[in-house]
Here is the input.
Amino acid sequence: MITPIAQKFKVFDDFISPTYQDIIEQLLLSSKIPWNWQDSMDYKTMDKRGGGYPQFVVDVFEDGNVFDTSLYHTMIGLMSKVVDDILPDYRPIRIRGILQTPIKDDIIHYPPHTDTTDSGGFSAIYYVSDATGDTFLFKEKDINDEIGIENRFEYKWEPIDRISPKKGRLIVFPSNFYHAGSPTESQRRVLINFNFMS
Here is the structure.
């Protein structure tokens, strides 16, 4: 079990068995997944780039609603292991897949965001395959939106950790800490994002 104070990502390599890793990778990289284009991952702002970066997403589960049965059933073992091994007494509130492709963007990381403003929640990111494009964690927490959406491109962010995508790797952190992805040079950067509340 982890504590609600994050100094760094909690990292678990080979969190699930190699066979299970392969099953998830084969499914998410197959042509059967109904990926949806999202112009901006983070926020809509006045900036010409929108609020973040474009990507493909597939909603799997949110607030008790299952959107994709095959993905949900494939991921339920992974989700259950996170609860059993790391976050006892927590329940999943959202699961979604994210797929990024290479985009020329001369920045270190995209505008940071939080998954929730509620303290006490946790987020987990599972990396489906090896890729470039680190995930950054920042010391800032979202408390009453003090930074402001319109200031997130200019704000002087202070990273406290960064992790590279690696197949089978899981990272866990408080959901109200700002975090961000970064541009990938890989053909695909694919991850599963989980959110948990007590």
